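Take a look at my tokenised protein here and describe the backbone shape.
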Amino acid sequence: MADSNEMTINLVVLGRTQTGKSAAGNSLLGSSDFESHCSPSSVTTCCSLGRSCRILGIIRRNGCELALRVQVLDTPSYPHSGLSKEQVRDTVRSALAHHFREEGLHLALLVLRADLPLCPDESDHAIQFIQELLGPTWKDFTAVLLTHADKAEEAGFSEEAYLHSASSTLLSLLTSVQNKYIFLDNQKSIIKEERDIVLRKLLNFIRQNNYQALPLFKHSKE
């Protein structure tokens, strides 16, 4: 909390190359802070922090409206086309401790593409990576962000039909994080109304942790 009338939430986006991590970060911020474009190699090579302006009309506590600020840490992909796992992990770990050491991390967003199947190896690698970053309580502080939901919709899948047809690997992952997931329409995410819906869902996930953030100093020194 920056003051009694304002709340700041700290988020980090994690995922593979070309899943739309940076674009998702921009959508959450309502800006274009992070470089995002199609590329045959990993675009993001270092961590960068983006901050939103004050957002009104999203959250109320104790009968009072609070202004919301969103901070998003964009990260290199894992696996990365030019960096080893250890380099990516150490870079992200250091940035998390540097930017969020005072307030902690409210939520890690594992970014997956809704229009591509999730393979067991990919899921295992992602989970292991997040566990190494966040520690044993990672499930409480992780949500899945399914990007390119517009492409799944174009293929005739509603959210309910998509989950009904999803692989056991994806369903198992969603279950492990207590079904904290959000579908992100890449075409609509820049619209304020759509962004507000996503932010309210994220705040609901954070509310499940009683607005507590994950301390980072323990994991930053491992």
Summary: Strands lie at 6-15, 48-51, 55-61, 64-74, 107-113, 142-147, 181-183.
